[in-house]
Amino acid sequence: MRVGEGRFSLAAVAIALPVLAIVVAILAAVSFAAVFGSSIGCGAEPAGSVEGAPARLIPIYQQASARYGLGARGPSILAAVNWVETGFGSNLGVSSAEAEGWMQFLPSSWEAYGVDANGDGVKDPYDPWDAIFAAARLLRASGAPGDWHGALFSYNHAEWYVEKVERAAGRFGGPTNEVVSSSALGCGTPAGADLEQAIRLFSPRSFKALPARLWVGEGPPEPVDARIWPDAVWLLESYDLRVTAARESGHNTHGDGTAMDLVPLAGHGWGQTALRAATDLGWTPGCAASGTAPVCPLAPAIQFIGYNGYDEHHGDPAHSSSPHLHVSWKSSEYGCPGLCPPREWVEVFPWSG
Q1: Tens digits of residue pLDDT in 194-211
Q2: d(Cα 38, Cα 33) in Å, to the nearest integer?
Q3: Domain ranges of the chain
Q4: Which of 128, 162, 324 is nearest to 136 (CA)?
Q5: Which uninterrupted H or E stretch holds 86?
Q6: 87, 16 in Cβ contact below 8 A?
Q7: Fold of 10-182
Q8: What is the model's pTM?
Q9: Interatomic CA distance for residues 82 and 303, integer angstroms
Q10: Is the N-terminal amide bond of 294 cis, ω within 30° of 0?
Q11: Phi and psi (nearest 5°) for 67?
Q12: Radius of gyration from C-alpha coordinates of the chain
């Protein structure tokens, strides 16, 4: 990216045609099933999917787009920028303008928009997760998805660049995942996760370990379903919570990686951590014995909340013999007591801000 500069390094141009040929020749198209849902409301757009880009990068484009609310075209635009800038990471040389990394950020722009998307404690433009999420963040700040032309022109001040990315995005665009449900509680758009809506994701069907800094259970950090990982990290960091159990056997809903048991960060009280999180996710004291919708007015992506009043094993120290907050995300099947593979789909929060 060369923000404020009209010139573009020759590196991306030199690799464009051969990289495209390789992509077309050897990569199988990846698509996600379309699902139709209830009224989206609030002007929300669905999050899209990508065909023809490297399969290992597709979840990054998709999750970055969802996190920053880039709508149906977001993943294919991110893939196109990545292809134009570095040929999907095949050319990571520093440009003459000192732009670097997977998405070619100038140091000043990276300082402003860089993120630690993979949770390793480092904002690294040479890490595809960090770089692609940062590009999504910059595009959102520059006007996307309402003004894709303006956002791409801000990324690189050249009309030919905008046209090239748009053409590539047309090749990479595929069927969409979409917002499948919406809360009746209102239309707020807080920075971070939008709890009032849900997006159904079919890929990647894999597990990803939680960051060690967010884990306080026994042994090494346990994984969650990779599709809920951004939601999980956001929840833990936003509410000063830590995880005692994730994907493990012996707990209903834990075995497929869609649930976590949570406790306050050391030195923090239950009211401003677990209770606040449970309430924001739709839990109320009156629904405690159920923990599920429609008795509980849960956020659309949430399947179950176990907290005060559910049973003697859930809740704060005044209500439980083993204090913790249990949160489960919706999936195609309602968890499993043993270890089982990732489910066909899970529902997650879209992102804004």
Answers
A1: 888 888 888 788 999 999
A2: 17
A3: 10-182, 192-352
A4: 128
A5: helix 74-86
A6: yes
A7: Lysozyme (1.10.530)
A8: 0.55
A9: 35
A10: yes
A11: -60, -40
A12: 21
